[in-house]
Amino acid sequence: MNIRPSSSTGVLFALVYNNTVPLSLSVVTQGEDEANLQVFLDGVVVATLESLILCYPDRLKVELSVTPTEILISANSSTVHYMQSDALQEALDRLNTTMQNPISTYIGGIPSEVPLPATPVTAFYHGCMDVTINGQQLDFDEALSKHNSIKSHSCPPVSPPDTHPDAPHPHRK
Q1: How sure is the predictor about 143, in pLDDT bands with cuts at 50, 70 and 90?
Q2: What is the rounded CA–CA span in Å between residue 47 and residue 70?
Q3: What's the pTM value of the predicted model, to 2 decimals?
Q4: Helix, strand, coil tally for the chain in percent (to 5)
């Protein structure tokens, strides 16, 4: 997945089953200009990738791999922290059991019918992304449903910051 967030906290990727969110990946803001990527299993943070700079002009390549025995997330040279291994393995076991059922995949948010307590992050993702799953790049035009705010095959440009020392920062209020 290649991302370039343009605003704060939001869901990048989520698996939904019976109005629960067994797996999600979200941008979570930590201040004005920084955010983390967090992986949630059943609403519990199991991995945190630190120091994602919001509104960075280049895209950030994020890789997420989940198997029945491990979860790995990486992006450029960021630092990753994982949940304690015993608790993580229990969460992966539950996810593996859930994955034996029909699962819906959502990119950029979760459906409105999923109750708010099902996951800590419910905001929609704002920004650009290219998603590749199992070597296949997703074409959002081929989705079963697509919110009308999604613009396929286009990404708004990010203008370089003004270098004038007295100019306001372009991404701060």
Answers
A1: confident
A2: 11
A3: 0.80
A4: 10, 40, 50
